[in-house]
Target: Dihydrodipicolinate synthase family protein
Amino acid sequence: MEKSRKGFIPVMLTPFQSDGQVDYPALTRLTELYLKAGAAGLFANCLSSEMFELSADERLQTIRHVVDVVDGAVPVVATGTFAGTLTEQADFVKKVYGAGTEAVIAITGLLAPQQASDEVFNERVFQLLEQTSGIPLGFYECPEPYKRLLSAEQLRAFVQTGRVIYHKDTCLDIEQVRQKLAAVEGHQFGLYDAYMVHAVESLKAGAAGLSCIQGNFFPELIVWLCNNYDNPYLTAEVAEVQRFFVRNMGVMHNVYPIVAKYSLKQRGIDISTFTRRKVGTLSSSVRKGVETLCLDYSNLRKDLEWAA
Model:
């Protein structure tokens, strides 16, 4: 995504009905929530979307649905590489791009086996570029099936092709983030950081924005941080917002994405907590943690002098 679109890119949830089918009316409501919050774009069909638990048809149908609801208001990116040969992955990339996305995201851990060298990985990336001519691509250092991080040198080589415009970074290391940003400076490219611990530092270093699971709890707060991270009159408030996210990281990660859906329900969003992904149960202690989190968020909003 272009640097002019700097801001928050939600990693979208997939709402399900109680019988496990995709709840498309709820997906509409969720998409509208992100847009109302001020999202600069949307990342559909990602790990938070339970993409590995969706069929190929469901992946495409949910992407098309999001694109239709957005109706050009913001760009949409979506994952396009899954298990299979490189040719099969390239074919699905074309289908995802045909669904109306701005760019198709490649999962770094699915382009080469974990034991494969960087040279092998690089070769497969260039093969994918060759087999998807003209389609803008991006990378996601997804934790599954294993996390393969890109070096600054690798990212520079890929971005210099003019085809790679997006990167969701999960290295958890601000120095690596800075190195990557320096390596691609001057290119039409956006790095979106997933790690809230150094969110403000990443934005100040030149990241195009944030793309984190915390946005599935309080998207407005992530947007506020992206808009105000460098505001000299709000230094204390910015620091407090980042501390809020760091302090509550355990609550937000516990049995995710169930907790995110429960948090949204606490805020009055009509969404089921059903997930296909086996992450644990919504126990009474988990519920209590989320309820306390929502209360803390309400107090933080008052501190920031936001409307209730």
